[in-house]
Amino acid sequence: MSEKHFELSDAEFERQFTACELDSAIFSHEAHLRLAWIYIFRDGREGAERKIQEQLKNFVASVGASDKYHTTLTVAAVRMVSHFMRQSKADNFRDFIGSFPALKSDFKGLIARHY
Predict the structure, then answer these.
(1) Could you tell me if 34 and 103 are in contact, meaning their C-beta atoms sit under 8 angstroms apart?
(2) Fewer beta carbons below 10 Å: N end or C end of the chain?
(3) Whose CA is closest to 35, among 69, 71, 77?
(4) How many CB atoms lie within 10 A of CB 83?
């Protein structure tokens, strides 16, 4: 079963997130990874790190969940997605996450092994 965030195009997903209009109920772990993938694909890893930190802080504040933001995990997630993107030929997030399901299913394990 596909997650609800896939009902939005990359552009609409990013627009709603940036404008703090995205339904927080669909902003799952996979949706976080998708946002990182979109930013890395377009802006490179360093640009993505800066952008996602700023925008994620704004988003969680807008939904009253500022305590959910964690800089170290956010940066680690962007770097991990970037690492796997370098091994991937996928030009869309759905194919990318399908090729590296551990990012979704064993993220904590990946963090523990690499950080």
Answers:
(1) no
(2) N
(3) 77
(4) 15
